[in-house]
Amino acid sequence: RTFHRSFVAVTMFWKFDLNTTSHVDKLLDKEDVTLRELMDEDDVLQECKAQNQKLLGFLCRQQCMEELVSLITRDPPLDMEEKVRF
């Protein structure tokens, strides 16, 4: 009887679609997504830590690498919104 309850519980668990797509993945599906759009996402670091291959592939593109290096080596323009500057 205990086995039956456990089996039912496991079966019910797998009936739910737990394979949700992150907002980062949805952005990466867009052809014209920008690095800035991705960096504005709250879960972008978590997605990197989770080794999201789509995200890592995007970030490793030469254009993105150059933009990332520029962002960390140059002072942001003074007229830029403070939230974006820092």
From TrEMBL:
GO cellular component, one term: cytosol
GO terms assigned for molecular function: protein phosphatase binding; protein phosphatase regulator activity
InterPro entries: SAPS
Domain of life: Eukaryota
Family: Belongs to the SAPS family.
Protein's recorded name: SAPS domain family, member 2
Organism, scientific name: Mustela putorius furo
